[in-house]
Write a structure and sequence with these properties.
With about 260 residues, this protein is of the alpha/beta class. The protein is built from ten helices and nine strands. The protein folds into two domains: about 5-190, Rossmann fold (3-Layer(aba) Sandwich), CATH 3.40.50; about 200-255, rRNA adenine dimethylase, C-terminal domain (Helicase, Ruva Protein, domain 3, Orthogonal Bundle). Helix content is about 30%, strand content about 20%. It has a seven-stranded mixed β-sheet with strand order 4-3-2-5-6-9-7. Strands 1-8 form a two-stranded antiparallel ribbon. Helix 8 (about 200-210) crosses helix 10 (about 245-255). The longest helix is centred in the last third of the chain and has 12 residues, at about 245-255.
Length: about 260
């Protein structure tokens, strides 16, 4: 029976074989990788990955699709909302022995909850080797954006302080069934080997304040926030939020947290 895409799950199934091949090439799976796929759907990406891996875990919320996936003997199926999955302990749930693996995480993420998934994985970044995700192109543009550009914002800062990222592949709407109303792309995310030490909650609040009124200069927003926290260092608050590089936001978070 043909599976009908369910709007509530944000399902758009990848069907373009050339795009699928290009994604697998970008991921470059190795036989012994500890890999987990989020939202495998109809297994368009799952099948070619399985051909190059000893074992593959998949996370699928749709119970009908999960049941189909369980018919594949080489697959370990976790039927769950990905936002409830503890990636740091996933190896235990899958019955793996020995040291916890560092996961290679891949997937065509539901566009309606892609940002929450990215932040959920950020909380488990120490358990991750790398990530390759298909997302709305506009979201990836924001993820990899440079300062002083229209796409640069809170998402840029909150991911770039912890990952090296690049847009590796453009994917047009006609590559899916049903086609989404937006362009898509594939992003590669590699956790930094030596990330700056900081209180992530402080950075998150700082950046949220900075971009809360991005048309205003920071003297009216972040400047006041820094003053309230007793910050006495030098910071040019005569700029707008998008003009401040990630390194400066990181340095502020480190200084305020002292």
């Amino acid at each position: 029976m043909k599976h009908i895409a369910r709007k509530r799950f944000g399902q758009h199934f990848l069907t373009d074989s050339s795009i699928i091949g290009a994604i697998v090439d970008a991921i470059n799976p190795q036989r012994s990788d500890a890999m987990v796929e989020i939202g495998p759907g109809l297994a368009a990406l799952t099948q070619p990955l399985m051909a190059q891996l000893d074992q593959l875990a998949v996370i699928e919320l749709d119970r009908d699709l999960a049941a189909r996936l369980r018919e594949q003997a080489a697959l370990q199926v976790v039927e769950s909302d990905v936002l409830r999955v503890d990636f740091s302990r996933l190896h235990e749930a899958l019955g793996r022995s020995g040291p916890a693996p560092r996961w290679r995480v891949v997937g065509n993420l539901p566009y309606n909850i892609s940002t929450p998934i990215l932040f959920h994985l950020l909380a488990h970044v120490d358990a991750v080797q790398d990530q390759h995700f298909m997302l709305q192109k506009e979201v990836i543009d924001r993820m990899v954006a440079k300062p002083s550009t229209a796409s640069y914002g809170r998402l840029s800062v909150m991911l770039q302080w912890r990952y090296a990222m690049e847009n590796v592949l453009f994917v047009p709407p006609e590559s899916f069934d049903p086609p989404p109303r937006v362009d898509s792309a594939v992003v590669r995310m590699v956790p930094l080997a030596e990330p700056p030490r900081l209180n992530e909650a402080v950075l998150s609040e700082l950046v949220q304040v900075a971009f809360s009124q991005r048309r205003k200069i920071l003297r009216h927003t972040l400047g006041r926030w820094l003053t309230e926290r007793g910050y006495g260092g030098e910071f040019d608050a005569q700029r707008r939020a998008e003009e401040v590089p990630v390194a400066e936001y990181v340095a502020l978070a480190q200084a305020v947290a002292v």
